[in-house]
């Protein structure tokens, strides 16, 4: 049986349209932290991440110094990986430089008409859209945003709806 926290996330949040620069930045950061780990690990630590990263306020995280990186490396409530922490700070700085904002940039890659996957085997790890989004983010200086991570972001914030046919959450 799936963890109740994971079920609630699946049923109520994953795949639902999410906009707003800080909100999208949070998901970009969390997807990067998830790389190589279970999503449930990140989900269980999400509130700790939010507290540690000033609720993912882009201007606040962009202003972080080496002292903040060291503080985060000492925080047992989050994933303590220097490269991922430094990427989050870097990505906040890159997001500040986007003329149209992070949310607007990411949502240009929405695929609302993608067909519903029939089974989990039909859910891709990457798509041409996720490859293009990753390339665009990297062009703007983002790190830890490869095509697979970009696709996980697209799924999480509703750029695509990968709830399989018949899933109760597909039509909500």
TrEMBL record:
Superkingdom of source: Bacteria
Transmembrane feature ranges: none
Stretch forming the signal peptide: none
Protein name: DNA-3-methyladenine glycosylase I
Source organism: Nonomuraea marmarensis
Taxonomic classification: Bacteria, Bacillati, Actinomycetota, Actinomycetes, Streptosporangiales
